[in-house]
Amino acid sequence: MSWHVLGAGSLGCLWAARLARAGVPVQLILRNPARLAAYQRAGGLSLVEQGLARRYPVPGQTVDDPQPIRRLLLACKAYDAESAITGLAPRLAPGAELILLQNGLGSQEAVAARVPQARCIFASSTEGAFRDGTAPEGEWRVVFAGQGHTWLGDPLDDHPPLWLSDLERSGIPHQWSPDILSRLWRKLALNCAINPLTVLYACRNGGLSEHSAEVATLCAELGQLLRSCGQPAAALDLHAEVQRVIQATAANYSSMHQDVAQGRRTEIAYLLGHACATAQRHHLDLPHLAALQERLLQYLDARGLPSH
Ligand code: NAD
Ligand code: KPL
To answer: What is the mean pLDDT of the chain?
Structure first.
């Protein structure tokens, strides 16, 4: 059975290349005929691993190709996920399975509501990849920059799908995780405690050691939020883990910092925005988190970047 991968971006290409080289049938879905033609002219995608580039001529198709979709990796940004799945819904075969690779929370529920006939598997990944815009192959060249792990789970059904063996065979490090919501909330909380401050203070993650009181206050409010919305395990030792991540990634710029520095839209609505909206729904007063959101929105607005 063929995999389909929507989003020939960083993670989509990383997954497609590894599936293809293991002999797993895979098709890349591109936005329109012009993008498909450009992809085909490039001869497929290139993956750079440990400095070595290899080309994978993964077949491509457009969103409105007639081929039914049974297994789909949705590898676009959180803000594109709902409209992307709406475009593909007519192609989903009965019993289709979707893997939602988006960071943050909120987009998964929006996707699931659009395609109630499909099984939606949520994923949280610590792998790192980026597109190497400077190469002649341009956007079809992806650099595998950070080894990591992907957790997959279905909040409605804890039976692992049979196709996990395809990931095994392809060398994609993964784990079936019945508590996937807890993982996604924990990652969201880490991102909320670190990413917005790195943008506002224009610093690397390590620069936050100069703002430790502010980080501690945010962690306390995030812990309150997690406990109030039924995720107490995600709140355990949050502050200690945030401090560990700040130390371990001290030399890095957070993903949100990189987005803003490159003038790209951020996933704020699915991170801090989702945290603040959930707090409001639970009638929780979290003044520092709310003030952080306000400051970040003003900062983005001043630079002409969207707030959603
Ligand atoms: P990306 O921007 O590199 O790729 C997304 C791709 O999806 C783009 O090529 C875009 O054109 C395409 N796309 C969007 N809507 C489409 C549509 N309707 N039809 C066809 N194509 C469409 O994004 P990414 O870095 O791969 O990130 C994907 C998700 O994974 C994000 O939520 C991100 O936060 C998360 N994530 C990324 C990394 C990483 O290292 N890149 C690591 C962990 C998590
Ligand atoms: O995931 C991250 C990001 O930059 O998005 C870390 C490194 C954990 C910082 O929040």
So the answer is: 96
Which of the 8 DSSP states describes residue 159? P
Instruction: Kindly report the CATH number assigned to the domain that includes residue 120.
Output: 3.40.50.720
Question: Is the separation of the CB atoms in 72 and 6 below 8 Å?
Answer: yes
Task: Please give the tally of structural domains in the chain.
Answer: 2
What is the distance between the alpha carbons of residues 173 and 149, in angstroms, rounded to a whole number? Answer: 5
Residue 170 and residue 266 in one domain: no
For 300: left if phi > 0, alpha if psi spans -120 to 50, otherwise beta; the answer is alpha
- Ligand 2, residues 101, 126, 191, 208: which to mutate, most atoms within 8 A of Cβ? 191
Q: What is the pLDDT of residues 206-255, one digit of tens each?
A: 999 999 999 999 999 999 999 999 999 999 999 999 999 999 999 999 99
Ligand nearest to the backbone CA of 107 = 1
Distance from C-alpha of 121 to C-alpha of 254, rounded to nearest angstrom:
26
Task: Write out the residue range of the structural domain in which residue 174 sits.
Answer: 3-178
CA of 142 to the centre of ligand 2 (A): 19
The pTM assigned to this predicted structure is: 0.97
Q: Are residues 268 and 220 both part of a single domain?
A: yes
Helices (H), 115-163: none
Catalytic residue IDs? 187
The verdict on the CB of residue 78 being under 6 Å from ligand 1 is yes
Final residue of a domain: which of 117, 147, 178? 178
